[in-house]
Automatic annotation (TrEMBL):
Family: Belongs to the YggT family.
Membrane spanning residue stretches: 9-34, 76-97
Keyword list, A-Z: Membrane, Transmembrane, Transmembrane helix
Record organism: Rhizomicrobium electricum
Coiled-coil segments on the chain, per record: none
Entry keyword Membrane: yes
Protein name: YggT family protein
Length: 101
């Protein structure tokens, strides 16, 4: 996302949220690749990537899943996390311009 020149702390927060959204997207794509047997989990590199993405995303997904109803095999937690990230980015920028420090 592009924002006008702002405080470096605000920029860092927005950038970290943006990076985390890419990590969530990578975790979702990797789970699809594993589910459709496009990649093999027994490959050491694939296993390392999956573990890395799980370590970064699973704690957040687990907290979101506590509030979502079970829908069988459908996991909506990444969508909720994406919406929360976008909301937090907009909120941080809005608060900065509303109440500059």
């Amino acid at each position: 996302m592009f924002y006008p020149p702002i405080n470096p702390v605000i920029w860092l927060i927005v950038t970290l949220l943006d990076i985390y959204s890419w990590i969530v997207l990578a975790a979702v794509i990797m789970s699809w690749l594993l589910a459709f047997n496009v990649v093999n989990y027994h490959n050491n590199i694939v296993r390392s990537v999956v573990r890395f993405l799980d370590v970064l995303t699973e704690p957040v997904f687990r907290q979101v899943r506590r509030f979502l109803p079970t829908l069988g095999g459908l996991d909506l937690s990444p969508i909720v996390v994406f919406i929360a990230i976008i909301f937090l980015q907009k909120l941080v920028v809005w608060l900065y311009f509303r109440f500059p420090f």
